[in-house]
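Holo model, 4'-deoxy-4'-aminopyridoxal-5'-phosphate. Inputs:
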Amino acid sequence: MRGVSTLTQFGQKHVTKGLGRLTEAVVTKGEGSYVQLDDGRRMLDFTTGIGVTSLGHCHPKVSKAAADQCMNLVHGQCSIAFHEPYLRLIEKLLPIMPDPSLDSFFFWNSGSEAVEGAIKMARWYTGRQNIITMQGGYHGRTFGAMAVTRSKTIYSEGCHPLMPGVFPVAYPYWHQHGLPPNTSEDELSERSLYQLDLLLSQQVNPKDVAAILIEPVIGEGGYVPAPKSYLEGLRTVCDKHGILLIIDEVQSGFLRTGKYFAIEYSGVRPDIMIVAKGIANGFPLSGIISRKEITDKLSPGSMGGTYAGNAVACAAGVAVADAMKEDKIQENVAARSKELFDSLAELRKDAEIGSKILDVRGRGLMVAVEFASPTGTPHDPLVDPSAPQNLAKRVAKRCLEKNLFILTTSVYEVIRFIPPLNISKEDLAKGCKIFAEAVKEVVR
Ligand code: PMP
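Output:
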């Protein structure tokens, strides 16, 4: 057996530098809300592999369903024949769709692929080429997904020109409008819809727009829920001009925000919904969900992929859907969410700390704390993470030293909380305590 430190060195030598990492240690095991590192540390995991292992690492029901499926059928090429787990998963998902019109499914492997497929479907169905995306939006790192991603230049550096026909528009996040954090949702909504109006009158004619693409809670771009009035406004614009509304629920879906899908908070109907991450608790699976009337326009063979809708991943997805109900995950999210917000409110009561925290926001267990930038501007991603102006990165690093995995978001001073949805009261409190200590140590 290779020694653990040798293993890290091996990785440093042979794994692409293009991957960023939180720690140089090697993960050897995952169990519930914890991961074991090869340097002996047991980390409390408030990242869930970026919103994936929502039911905790190696959830017994999900792992067993996958193991059973491995002994039955691993690969059932969906371009050759339907396979049972694919169809069983659709049966489980139909009743939880945010709108009954969403009745046609295509499963893929990753969120990025699903984004690509959704763009393709929208172009095909409407016969139009252009896509409106959100400033700060993140949709992936493959070529089409990269073009609609506008959260950080690093994702597309050296790759321009990107896919043409993508128009970014301001998201209702106060930073993007030069407004203070206490700006009302109505004002943010109004200003963002005004920007959209300008875009549609000055830059691209609405009759040439295939789709508007949005995360209902912008993830990488700051963990900001879109106001109901804004999403309603988008729906109205889409209906008026025959534009499709694509809702990217890759990070916010599957109870992450307390409802199955974050779009439910608005009551708005998506034309296409993209899901991934929490759908199968770690097995590679994503989905493009739309209505039959749209997908019936596609030519057979225009969608597909060797591993698309893998049988083991679909079986895991079925088990996730069952476990979410049986384990009463929605109730747990509601209780833990309240405790998390209470703990952050308590932290803000300290005058010195409070003055450094600009905003606490989110829904369910998709929650952010935004620090005041000491320079008053968004941080420069190229600045050394330990530089004094980079508060969020320094807090995350301090948490790491205290055995808590926690992530930042993109260009602002934001820490994101994405703990397992079934985390216990005790583990949540433990993580909150570590976070509070780390903030005090960094800020003071
Ligand atoms: N959309 C959103 C909202 C995401 O958060 C992500 C991943 N962080 C993606 C798309 C891309 O998914 P994947 O990494 O599985 O390709």
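The chain has 14 helices and 17 strands. Residues 50, 110-112, 115, 138-140, 215, 219, 248, 250-251, 276 surround 4'-deoxy-4'-aminopyridoxal-5'-phosphate (CB under 6 Å).
Archived with the compound record.
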